[in-house]
Amino acid sequence: MSSNAKIVLRKKPNKEGLYPLAIRITKNRRSTFQYMGHYIELEEWDKRNLIVKKSHPNSEHLNSLLSTQLSGVNKALISLQSEHKDASANQIKKDIYHSDKNLTFFELAEEHLEDLECSEKLNRLSCDKAWIGYVLKFYKSKHLTFQEIDERFLKKLIIYLKSSHKLSETSVMNIMVLMRLLYNRAIKLKIVVRELYPFGGDKIRIKFPESNKIGLNIQEIQNIEGLKNLTIVELHTRNVWLFSFNFAGMRVSDVLKIRWSDINDNRLQYRMHKNSKLISMKIPVKALDIINLYRNDRKDTNDFLFPELKKANLRDAKDVYNKLKTANRKFNVNLKSIARKASITKKLTMHIARHSFGNIAGDTVHPLMLQKLYRHSDLKTTLNYQANFIYREADDALDSVVNF
């Protein structure tokens, strides 16, 4: 087990401008920090010898304390090695300090990010890492306790996110959701008592703004289908978008992972990346026409239908994630050009295929059936997609009165 520990001075000061002393525990190039609870001036730290300089009035006491603490950590590391424990840096820290009840917000957040990486949920990892970064920019220190995260703290954070970073209401609410998740986890670990919970009721309520994503109508999709003056990359982008639309707005990450082996007996059978659900759908005629355009590029039954992942290192989740992200970005650029050529003024992205399906389904398909087609776990999510249509009876009633 490649692991080590050393005393370091962290480079992010507290509100008094002092810098925290910590023990850095590293395993396989990944590190975690155990803060010592002592702060010094930056110029009082000897970077070369990793000790507090004599200019500090309590240097002798601090260096003795740090030496004792470091010695204890190194003994524990040797003990863990003798037991052949293959653990992460955070797990090693837990074994040494048994510090679940003393975990800070950012330490628990780091464990959360590690869990996401281990489970290869890289899209969420990227988002949550960015959200946590905003909280750190606000607090300016990693030594944030859960007891400090009260209603006043969260209100000031919300104002900061909107004023200093111009984040949208949706982004701010996503950060609140993440903080609520970590706070609930802290309650389960008995890091903080439930009585201090700052969310819900008359405290901080998480409410997302209504989505204004507008799907295409039938005529607009027919305009796209009928375009003749497309470049090769635009033709491919149109094929992928229409494939997604014809399967009820299948997510682009799932579209690009479709293999020839997933196509059998005029049905598409695949496992959703988001929730691992196994899906089986009849292949619409228009989707079958698109599939046939790629048959000549097929190498074997295990080959991908579309080319974006053909050269990906499938053993490297990050490489797959990066190629999916790059492909989605290129598709969205091409879709802007396609929209102009089709005289469509609405925003056109890969995700709009999902909203377009809902737009055309309107209120003619029962929400429970739409939930199946969308592959939503929660009916509320489906109803949000159909919000423009569930009030149609009220609209008709209004028209019957005022149109005279």
TrEMBL record:
- Gene3D superfamilies, from UniProt? 1.10.150.130, Intergrase catalytic core
> Residues in domain Tyr recombinase?
248-387
Q: Tell me the Pfam families matching this sequence.
A: Arm-DNA-bind_5, Phage_int_SAM_5, Phage_integrase
The alphabetized UniProt keywords are: DNA recombination, DNA-binding
Q: Which residues are in the Phage integrase SAM-like domain?
A: 104-198
BP GO annotations:
DNA integration; DNA recombination
Any idea where the Arm DNA-binding domain is? 7-93
GO molecular function terms here? DNA binding
Q: Say which family it is in.
A: Belongs to the 'phage' integrase family.
Q: Which PANTHER family match?
A: PHAGE INTEGRASE-RELATED, PROPHAGE INTEGRASE INTD-RELATED
| Name by which UniProt lists this protein | Site-specific recombinase XerD
The scientific name of the source species is: Gelidibacter algens
